[in-house]
Specification:
Elements lengths: L13 H17 L15 H8 L7 E18 L2 E8 L2 E8 L5 H10 L5 E10 L5 E12 L15 H6 L1 H7 L1 H23 L3 E2 L5 E2 L11 E4 L4 E5 L4 H10 L3 E9 L11 E10 L3 H18 L4 E4 L2 E4 L5 E4 H9 L7 E2 L2 E2 L1 H11 L9 H12 L8 E7 L15 E9 L2 E8 L4 H17 L10 H7 L6 E7 H9 L17
Parallel strand pairs: 3-5, 6-10, 14-17
Antiparallel strand pairs: 1-2, 1-4, 2-3, 4-5, 7-9, 8-9, 10-11, 11-20, 12-13, 15-16, 17-18, 18-19, 19-20
Helix pairs in contact: 5-6, 6-8, 6-14, 10-11, 12-13
């Protein structure tokens, strides 16, 4: 094989490696070799090669001839024999390229022209070596794609996390752990979908481009539709359109898709992320709690687990989860009744600021009330939650789309689910009174003006109009797929669960 400057070594720069590879490509083409054929007939995966070889006796071979294809990730010359490793999506298997078993051009291809990183196909029989390793003994070899850039260094891989995220193809190429992690994500997504469908939910799609953002407290991304000459936004939630479907008579609906929020980037937030929102007529937030427990448990079972280590805590994923009430937690850990910071469906700002000062929570005169409330919760209550925990009953002032709890003028039927100190789900008994809904959205509009709260809900008159057609009692839930994958795989950074996370300029 031609000498190749190893990446990351002082004996050769990237430019050296590219020069060697491009010179080899030019030579091969001059010899009439198609270095990028359009297709290959692949009969077996690497995993199937191993499965065929394991039961064999040492030195025995399977009679069936097969074709395996993949990326060449190792080459070990031993005179007239060369052992190589081919890797595909199923794993890695060994191939034996022996001079007297191959046509002369094929052995020359392997010994002189191939580099680690190239894609190849090998036809042959599976046998078991003297060391007991299932191996494909090649009778012919075909180059499928010549790689011009080097693979990450064999023994150390990619250590720089920024490079891993920015060049995910290199990360996947070099790390079996990364490949396994994203297979787990795929399994979690498919399991969540199957669980909801087994409960009678139908999957739907709602618009991503909207005239206004609604359904959540977040800032949207702005864009412009040229043909209509209209400013638009990317959706921050799917809630308002999914509720329209409940109004229209689709009793159980869900959407699994992307949301976009113009917010900061850190280990827990990515501006583009994946969620599930589900709505069920004639249910409530208790029904949504059971739904979420079932989804999490089914996903855990699909991964072969019943508990997980997350943020230094051991969490049982077996239902039922813990259930606590926020008004009781508030009085215990904040030393005051939650109702004392509320005035009906709004905050008592003076009382809220006083409580924040007493608890040492940062809050200025220009800090939105909803943000102060969130900071108090995070400081005084969140660290005291154990295991997988539903926190029921939240202020109406921060939840304009949920139904009031019977007998309370200021608390709504909402829960947030927490695991290992992180919020993983949010659900309501959905507000279905159009007059109450209009009043609450008008209050949110005032908060935008008076407190400069850019994340307050917008007034969507079309949604209120739809509610006036009659909306049945319903429960609704939203949970982030990325957060669920973090929880079930024990990852503390959302970037480990998104193939192509957004990154700051580096």
């Amino acid at each position: 094989m031609d000498p190749e400057p190893p990446p990351g070594r002082t004996c050769g720069s990237l430019e050296d490696v590219l020069a060697v590879k491009k010179a080899k490509l030019k030579e091969l083409r001059a010899r009439g070799l198609d270095c990028y054929p359009a297709r290959v007939e692949k009969s077996h995966s690497c995993a199937e090669v191993l499965a065929i070889g394991r039961p064999l006796e040492v030195g025995a071979r399977d009679p069936a001839q097969l074709r395996c294809a993949g990326r060449l990730v190792g080459l070990r010359p031993m005179g007239k024999s060369i052992f190589g490793d081919i890797q595909d999506g199923s794993g890695k298997c060994q191939v034996h390229f022996k001079k007297d078993a191959l046509p002369e051009p094929d052995f020359l291809l392997v010994s002189k022209d191939l580099h680690v990183g190239d894609f190849v196909a090998a036809v042959g029989h599976v046998f078991k070596t003297r060391t007991g390793e299932p191996t494909l003994k090649a009778a012919s070899v075909t180059l499928l794609a010549k790689a011009l850039r080097p693979m990450p260094e064999k023994f150390h891989g990619l250590k720089d996390v920024e490079t891993r995220y920015r060049c995910r193809h290199l990360d996947l190429m070099s790390s079996a752990e990364t490949r396994a992690a994203f297979r787990k994500r795929s399994l979690i997504v498919s399991t969540a979908r199957k669980t909801l469908e087994s409960m009678g939910f139908i999957e739907v799609e709602t618009p991503i481009l909207l005239p206004r953002a609604g359904g959540a407290s977040a800032r949207p991304f702005q864009t412009h539709h040229n043909a209509l000459d209209r400013d638009m936004v990317l959706r921050i939630a799917t809630e308002l359109h999914l509720k329209r479907l409940i109004i229209g008579g689709l009793d159980k609906v869900f959407e699994l898709g992307r949301l976009f929020r113009n917010e900061g980037i850190d280990t827990k937030h990515n501006p583009e992320f994946t969620t599930v929102e589900a709505y069920e007529a004639y249910s409530d937030y208790n029904g949504m709690a059971k739904l979420y427990e079932t989804v999490v448990w089914d996903c855990a079972q699909a991964l072969g687990m019943d508990c997980v280590e997350y943020n230094g805590l051991r969490l049982s994923l077996r239902p039922p989860f813990n259930r606590v009430r926020l008004p009781e937690l508030w009085q215990t850990h904040c030393g005051d009744k939650m109702e004392n910071i509320l005035e009906g469906k709004a905050f008592n700002r003076k009382a809220l600021l006083s409580l924040a000062q007493r608890l040492g929570v940062p809050a200025g005169e220009t800090t939105p009330s909803s943000k102060i409330f969130e900071r108090i919760f995070d400081a005084a209550i969140l660290p005291r939650l154990d295991g997988m925990t539903f926190v029921f009953d939240h202020p109406a002032a921060v939840t304009p789309l949920a139904k009031l709890k019977p007998g309370s003028p200021c608390v709504v039927e909402r829960f947030e689910c927490f695991g290992g100190g992180e919020e993983v789900a949010n659900a309501y008994s959905e507000l279905n009174d159009p007059e109450d809904q209009l009043e609450r959205l008008e209050h949110q509009a005032r908060m935008r003006r008076e407190e400069a709260d850019e994340e307050a809900d917008v007034l969507d008159a079309d949604f209120v109009s739809a509610m006036e057609c009659g909306m049945p009692p319903a429960g609704g839930i939203g949970f982030g797929i990325d957060r669920l994958v973090m929880l079930l795989t024990g990852q503390t950074s959302i970037r480990e669960t998104i193939l192509f996370p957004m990154l700051k300029d580096g």
